Predict the 3D structure of the following.
Amino acid sequence: MSQFIQLTQQDPQLVREELLAGLLAASAQTSPKYLYDALGSKLFEAICELPEYYPTRTEAQIFASHADEIAAVAGTGATLIDLGAGNCAKAASLFPALQPSHYVPIDISVQFLRDAVSRLQSQFPRIAMTGIGMDFSSRLDLPTAVPRHNRLFFYPGSSIGNFTPQEALAFLARVHTACIHEGNADGGILISIDLVKDAAILDAAYDDALGVTASFNLNLLQHLNHLLQADFDLRAWRHRGFFNARQSRIEMHLEALSPQTVRWPGGVRRFEEGERIHTENSYKYTQQDFIDLLTQAGFVDVTVWSDPQQWFMVCHARAVQPN
Ligand code: AVI
């Protein structure tokens, strides 16, 4: 019953060009997607276990306490499209309540999905499953194997926070378009958002005592060494992770501990002591600001579930045909 489709492959030349443009900019930066090589993905799993990193367990509590209400609002029997599915565990925890007719996990590489989907398929033989390998952050044109009607897009983990608010709006608008077929809209989105809270809680979540987030961030340099054949010395950099209240975002940077020159075939970049590479933003929203974003993207009837401390929220919103 399960099938796999690899839609896009990373072009190494484009990856190189994108990375070098970021590293050679006056304020050096890299896209957060480069944090996730094989080791980076394992380190992120470890982050999710940390006492300071509340999003994962708070979201799991919200799903566990409100699964039936979520199903009552989102409906059962949908095509559940899981954006950034990874090991598919979050969606699977909602299968008994949501009872999807078709499950479509999407991740950058279909290889990541194979084992998880095979396991799930034997547990839930009546759900059709189509694993798709694509970078859904810039496009969302799904293959015809994915039914057009009654689509429920699932975007957990507060991953939308790693987009800027403008990118998040464009992304939500693409999801909205993907819910419309033959002029009708009968789909929706189930999405998690991390909420603005006390800066000390946010700072600790992104700069934990064990140093796992620091390792996750520093591992980016190891990944760059591999992708660019560069010679970053990991011991010459430190992790910085802090809440920027003005921009309502966590910023992660790597900061040079000493003046240094980094080389790769055909290029160099000099970094002064204290100079930074900006590696990730993680935007935190108020409930109302995110509801406004969903509304601007064309969604209506927003339902919110949160935890008692109101640190995190899960939203369902319905897509409607624009006038
Ligand atoms: C994947 N994403 C939602 C995480 C976040 O909280 O922004 C990535 C992360 N970066 C550091 N810790 C976790």
About this structure: The mean pLDDT is 96. The longest helix spans residues 54-74. The chain has nine helices and 15 strands.
